[in-house]
């Protein structure tokens, strides 16, 4: 018997809901041409939740055709208020379905319900922020003298978007918000391990009044559906969030197909710098949020902590104590801060890094082990006595594992902070404005958090330097990424 286009799922909370399984194309859930499907696992129980249908290259083509048709309509070229209305309604529906969306996310990804609820709130906030931008995306009038009239327009595009599995819903909102605000149309592919919340948003988009074909959402794998998006000859722009290696593949595919515009939000190995004058308990709270929030599966995680020698022992003592209090386990328990890692592959990769740290001579301050029993749970892990050449210090682990390094001077801290191929984010903890200015100006990263961490706002742009990516999401900057500038220069005839 073939998989129905909608299945009933019982969540661990006891709630049952109807989960779409098809490809969301032209505002309908449809079968892919080959009717292939794949299983979706719950990382906290290792059980199969359901299967969903898999898009292949020919289905990407169908979805692109839908996006191209929508691009020709009044949605793209008509009044921006119509787009704002859909975004406001969508934000309202996300809020209305917050409990359900958070539970779907927790079941599918393994993250704690606490974390999922935060993601849902940020998702609604971002859609609402984008709603306000719809009628403010303007060009310029350029004065070159009275012989010509010049202006620029911001022209939307047909997009392809590929999102990761660590924040399925939030990353979807960072992609769909600017699409809906600018009049772009899109084909969005969710990550193969976490397709459920994106499909559910398909239902909400219809309810919000989005015209057909504007947003098409497909489930599928990177090497097939993802690659078909990156190399599609009629997609004008691809936006990707994921690993640096895949980012490089996408950029190459974009170059070799039609030189589509590319934005990449990639990996990181972000430094979190603590100076002698920092407030110990507030700083430790931020160090924990920086590395253990979302089980460390955060591209901008503060995974290298640099501590000045005068405060080193105090911070380590408090950091160990507070880390050992973190509640890890059943992600549906409202007290749980750390749920499961998102997949078996990720779980094994993190444990391999932990073992390499131990083998290469680093000291485990706490953690260093999985939690016994079912599910992909790993204890929050702190390493000290590390060397710059160790894999745990150089590579992005994407898990709850942090290396702590001692330094003496401000210049040494800057040098250590920049000793990485990445440049996504950094943290600075001090109340000395001169240190804040010197260090924030010297660190090569797209985001600097001072006396805070993992602290996002829809109006503040996010993205990386160097191997951490190209382009920015959120803020005003993102609208430049989702539009191309057209300059119009009109010669004025001298009439009497
Ligand atoms: P990870 O390696 O941590 O799973 P990825 O960067 O591979 O992260 O995954 C992020 C997203 O990129 C997913 O949606 C995945 O399907 C997609 N992806 C993976 N490989 C490719 C590829 N070759 N082309 C396009 N998309 C890909």
Brief characterization of the structure:
The protein contains 16 helices and 24 strands. The chain has 496 residues and is of the alpha/beta class.
Please, could you describe this protein's structure?
There is one protein chain. The protein is of the alpha/beta class and 496 residues long. The protein has 2 domains: 6-266 and 471-485, Aldehyde Dehydrogenase, Chain A, domain 1, CATH 3.40.605; 271-458, Aldehyde Dehydrogenase, Chain A, domain 2 (3-Layer(aba) Sandwich), CATH 3.40.309.10. 38% of the residues lie in helices and 22% in strands. The protein contains 16 helices and 24 strands. The strands form 7 sheets. Strands 16-17-18-15-14-20-21 form a 7-stranded mixed β-sheet, with helices on both faces. Helix 3 runs antiparallel to helix 5 (113-133), helix 3 (80-96) runs antiparallel to helix 6 (168-182) and helix 4 (98-109) packs across helix 5 (113-133). The radius of gyration is 23 Å and the shape is globular. It starts with 5 loop residues before the first strand and ends in a 5-residue tail after the last strand.
